[in-house]
Design brief:
By secondary structure, the chain is mainly α. It is built from 4 helices and 2 strands. It has a domain at 41-132. The chain has helices at residues 11-23, 41-61, 68-79, 105-123, and strands spanning 81-85, 92-97. The protein has a two-stranded antiparallel ribbon.
Length: 147
């Protein structure tokens, strides 16, 4: 499966797509969806390397064998929970938990803000500001670059 990003405002990019489509033979499944930015690699490293890791460390300090994946699942359940409601009765049929991978960059920032505030309020875990933290290095020292 191949994924291609095309700017339909650019005639040259549209031509490349059209030229490709003209060469296709047989049956194809083609899906198109509007582009939206997903979270950045830097956001992902901050989330997993700082936020989730600190919460995972806290959970492990409680004497259980929790993983960082467990910490991630708890954070998702706290902030990405969705209720499916019976429209006729108003009764909640079930609850699901969304995926952080499907969040846009802006939605992921909001999610991070909620996680950081909740960890501070509920567990007194102070999560360093992403602008002052070195992500993806051996050292956890403050850095001068921004995230």
């Amino acid at each position: 499966m191949q994924e291609v990003l095309i700017n339909f405002d650019d005639p040259a990019e549209k031509r490349v797509l059209w030229d490709f489509l003209k060469t296709c033979k047989g049956r194809w499944r083609i899906t198109a969806c509007r582009y939206r930015r997903r979270r950045s690699d830097v956001q992902n490293r901050y989330y997993w390397g700082v936020v989730v890791r600190l919460f995972g460390d806290f959970l492990r300090d409680q004497g259980e064998q929790y993983t960082d994946e467990d910490a991630h699942e708890v954070l998702k359940a706290a902030f990405l929970r969705k209720s499916i409601v019976n429209q006729e009765t108003g009764e909640i049929i079930c609850e699901t938990v969304g995926s952080t991978a499907k969040l846009t960059t802006g939605e992921f920032i909001e999610y991070l803000d909620k996680c950081v505030a909740w960890l501070a309020d509920m567990f007194h875990i102070v999560v360093p500001d992403p602008n002052q933290y070195r992500i993806g290095t051996e050292s956890d020292e403050p850095a001068s670059h921004t995230v």
